[in-house]
Amino acid sequence: MSASNKKQQRKAAQAEGLTQKQKLELSQAQAAKRQKTVYTVIGVVCAVAAAGLLIWNGVNSFQAKGRLNDIAATVGDETYTVSDLQYYYGGIRNYYNQLAAYIGFDPNQPDGAQWYNEAEGQTYADFFRDSALSSLEQTAALCAAAKADKFTLSEEGQKSIDDQLAQIDIIRAAYGMSRKAYFSSQYGITEEVFVRNLTNDTLANEYSTQHKDSLTYDEAALDEYYTDHSDILDSYDYRTFFISGAAPTTDADGNTVTPTDEDKAAAMEAAKQNAEAAVAAIEAAENKEAAFAAEAPKYVSESTRESYAADPDHSLSTGVMGNTLSQNGGAYASWLMDSARKSGDVTAIESVENGYFVVMFLDRYLDKSNSVNIRHILIMADTSDSTETDANSSPIPTQAALDAAKAEAETLLAQWESGDKTAESFGALAQEHSDDPGSKDNGGLYTRVPQGQMFEGFDQWIFDPAREPGDTGLVENPQSGQYGWHVIYFEDTDGYWEKVATDAKQNTEQSEWLEEIYATVEAVAADGMQYVGSPNTAVASTPAPSESPAESQEPAESQPAE
Q1: Cα separation of 357 and 350, whole Å?
Q2: Does the structure show a pLDDT above 60 at 448?
Q3: In whole angstroms, how far apart are CA 131 and each of 89, 120, 292, 412, 531?
Q4: Is 320 helix (H, G, I), strand (E, B) or coil?
Q5: Reported pTM
């Protein structure tokens, strides 16, 4: 299920360039790159292990050199081999591979020939090794704490490990490989090492998760949290449009040109003058909102001008909660959150995106509208007989397949109604039958869902004013890639701002708890650490001091020391 795309819930500026989703991904990627310690890498490594992806080829060159059993690190009295660290190195490297488009990492180049932090002389190979050591340290600390608490791996945890191995079996069978050959060639380690570390990671992740889930707060605690964090919990209504300050990259004849520093400065100055002119015109108007809508089409990019001209509310964002605004609001977020802001205030704010935002503040308030807690079972229609595809190239099921999905949904609902008709029994059916991977293992549960997050039909059903706890119903899913039917169970209503406050408070306290756990152990690198990494990554593989990774046409490669 995906969020609806209602115009009144636009949560970001209409800026040129990256979409808001891309901007959020970029900011998250950049934050991850700046992070020296990978505090939540357990989940990253588990996810990579589950994917069964090809991290690199030729890692078995380490085996030929007999280095996999060398001691790479110690944690307390425990020793860990190159193989153990290889597991973590591979997981973290693959995670950065997925972020490569945003952070400048090239997975096709040697890790040791790319700078992670040139000023500190740290290559990506160095960073991945450091992160692998931190990951091992954190896992070891959590496993030790779990053992002290007599916390053991759950049946669900063991099942997740078994499922991951089953997925790897599908992949390696497609290549005609045994498990031994697969783990050797694709991970550079044995199956035993892989399973041992995956099991430790799963246990550590479960132990950490159960602690976070145990953190609950009453109304008084949340009210106190709101008092101290109203900026991120309040909601904001505002208008904004973006004026590009990017210098032209083509001349009058359409030829590609490279802007000079003077060209760039002139373009930014022109954008600033335009922004100031727009602000002056809006402030002078009797109806500032109408003036804002009228000024926007004069200055926005040509590709968005028609949208602004046709819709006076194209610049309007309403109900944007502060936590979202702080992530997506860019340069103007702090301005909007200023306690001195009054309705009708308007300003021009320079953006790092080479331009200026024109922003008008309209309102700020604590949105106490309810969210809902629901369970659902998604039955996706079979598409094996499909002959058509939609705009996203997803197969469109036949009407017969849709009818079959609905019939299955009706059968499941009837089965539930013939039993004790509880939330728990519905959850059991969801675990067994739902096609939604995001909620299947949690009994189909989605908590504190705000209005507008789900697709229209689903949203209308769960926010029907007549809806009462225990209600059930069927809703068709017409979304690309999710065609089928939902069986829905309505649990109750809840407050959305309380959910955000709870999550934020939990995250803070969980981080403090994890820091205390991690402080109980220390991982120390041993001589074998130099052999951890992809086969073309060794300690000596570093870019030349005078060149950046992106400029290096022939990155240096070296082999691990004998």
Answers
A1: 6
A2: yes
A3: 7, 16, 49, 46, 15
A4: strand
A5: 0.65
